[in-house]
# Entry
Amino acid sequence: MGKIKENEITPEAVYMNRRNFIRAGLLAGSAVTTGAIYKVFAPSGGNIKDTAPIQGEIGRSSFATDEKQNTFEEITNYNNFYEFSSSKTGVAEKAARMNLRPWTVEIGGLVHKPTVFDIDGILRFPQEERIYRFRCVEAWSMVIPWVGFPLKLLLDKVEPFGSAKYVAFETLYDPNIMRGSLAAGIDFPYVEGLRLDEAMHPLTILATGLYGKQMPHQNGAPIRLVVPWKYGFKSIKSIVRITLTADEPRTTWSLAAPNEYGFYSNVNPDVDHPRWSQKRERRIGEDWTMRDTLMFNGYDDEVAHLYSGMDLKKYF
Ligand SMILES: Nc1nc2c(c(=O)[nH]1)N[C@H]1C(S)=C(S)[C@@H](COP(=O)(O)O)O[C@H]1N2
Ligand SMILES: [Mo]
# Structure
């Protein structure tokens, strides 16, 4: 993690005890480089590498917020992808090195039909657009028109055993091209997990693109998870393996800092991060005015029942 210049200290950082922040150096989406964002969003933005349109028709989903969408430029130049860089504005250029073919997603564990799916087969599944609010743990948010399909569609194909209770995910790890990894302070490959009922929920998608185009490298090409009611770090990128398990899977950020990042990581304005508040957020592309963070990122009606009877302060 580089030195923090005074002019790069951002409103997010105001929430943090600066000394602890520097000492711990562990932030699921570092705020260090946030100050550079407006420079990159100027029309010159040379990092943007357009991707091919998605083939076939894109269905319309009933799940869509009508809030103003962030621009393609914003979504593709302000990223967390620690394998490549811990600078949000530096990811786009570095991630372009990732080779996307051949690419397979291997699904196994507690399933009747373990399968290795080729990505080009997956891309022929019926795709639909989902305009979701997306909120990072470090208090910024965006509205992103993802293209993808429910994760349930893929899980049903492999027929989980009755004993399967969780789903574990793993990102590609190629240290030859993922050179940001040494400085990141977390272990790789990046791993994540969901409870099976969360994974089967209709809001949970595997995203293959955005704005009608194939997924840009920096956003987790060729396929990434999107779980809109959880903090951004749950939405693991560039997935190569999915494993059905009986026990709660290990997850990258809770391994790195278990007192700061839990397994559930539901967006919850009433449960603070130990080092800063989670009550408010800044929408990227707007001025620095903070808006109130919504319970479950605004997906309360759809998902609250998954956690009935659970103490969400304990299961954070
Ligand atoms: N493999 C991998 N997946 C990841 C990350 C990462 O560093 N590596 N960062 C996470 C975090 S902290 C966030 S906020 C989102 C950012 O997604 P975006 O760059 O598409 O906005 O990706 C998540 N998925
Ligand atoms: Mo994040």
